Amino acid sequence: MSHQFSRRQVLQAVVLGSTQVPQYVSAVTKTRQTLKVAAYPLVDEIIASALSVWTRLHPDVKVEIVRRQYLDHHTAMTTALSTSSHLPDVMTLESSFVGRYSQGAGLEDLSKLPYNLGQYKDRFVSYAFEQVINQRQEMIAVPTDIGPGTMLYRHDICKRAGVEEAELTSSWKSYVDAGIKIKARTGCYLIGNAKSVKDIVLRSGVKPGEGLYFGLHSEVLVKSPRFVRAFELAQKIRQHRLDAKVNAWSNEWAEGFKRGQLVTELTGAWMVGQMANWVAPNTKGLWRAAQLPERAYASYGGSFYAIPRKSSPAMKILAWEFIQMMTLNAELQFKAFKSQDAFPALVETHAGRFFDEPIEFLGGQKARLIWREAAKNIVSAKVHKQNNFANEVIDMSLDRVLDGHSSIDDALSEAHSLLEKRAFR
Fold first, then answer.
1. Long-range contacts at 344-352 (CB < 8 A, ≥ 24 apart)
2. pTM of the model
3. Is domain 7-146+301-355 in CATH 3.40.190.10, yes or no?
């Protein structure tokens, strides 16, 4: 049986970095179509910069980027999936929302034909790919960039306080002690919110096969040493008034960076792009990156592409072609890395010389080498169906501790009881 392929199909195979012509391609249409892609900053900019490639593949298909701020975007996607209305053809999701949506039925299972996502598994960072597989073994999204955990710190303020990088990174105790010194000598806060330390410590201590809150057999883990330590560190930071008590992504949080009031941020590598482009571009050259305290390798965010299950059937193959272009094209992945510090999930990009290049926003530091090491050592946390509820319970429990209304033991015991009642629902 012979096959004939159009020039567009062959071009597509080349652009996607494959030596094989794709099995599934959309039919050439005579009328101009519009593919709706919903995205948040700065993923929307990455998509916009890739549209010239898409236009060469599909001159008959316009891409409309539906842009919203981070929280507005995910609120809109949650509403769209729950009501099956105003659905985009492609939606971008931050990693925590991939876990949140994975247990529902709102996203297309990309492990099935015509998608067959499993064939590309080895091309992605292992922990990122594991995040898209739910308990039903469905693959509900495709990773595009990842968030190796890192600590960003203001080099100039630390120098003024007489604090070396090693004091911030050698241990969590030394991190807090350095914060005490910085506050006394400069008046600056160590971090925006003590909860950020709790989040990182919980993520970095996960054992293979475990989740953040539940074990392999749904046993509740919140009374483990990992949780006790996370709460103790957050409590100590609050007791010494080392956090500004501002929430991430709030106006107060951004202003803290712009005005030099916040000295460190425990976050994903992608934050450098956010800082340089809109959070605090005026602080260019003043920041440095380091591994997290105690080399606590942790995943912190990342971006994914998904197809809503109930989106237009006529657009699904086009949606899949678009996702393949954005996630499997090494050239586009590098372009996003260079422009937005979107650390690629595509493994084949990790051997590039770009990793050895200095980052201007970080004062010429070669920080990508730090983040590549972290990416290799991160253990993926399993997503439990009650993760969202558990996250709310733990945050409320920590609030009671930080406000002085509960001891750590009592708060975690109450949380344990609540989660045991929900673990097997």
1. 344/144, 344/145, 344/146, 345/124, 345/125, 345/128, 345/129, 345/143, 345/144, 345/145, 345/146, 345/302, 346/123, 346/124, 347/122, 347/123, 347/124, 347/125, 348/17, 348/123, 350/375
2. 0.79
3. yes
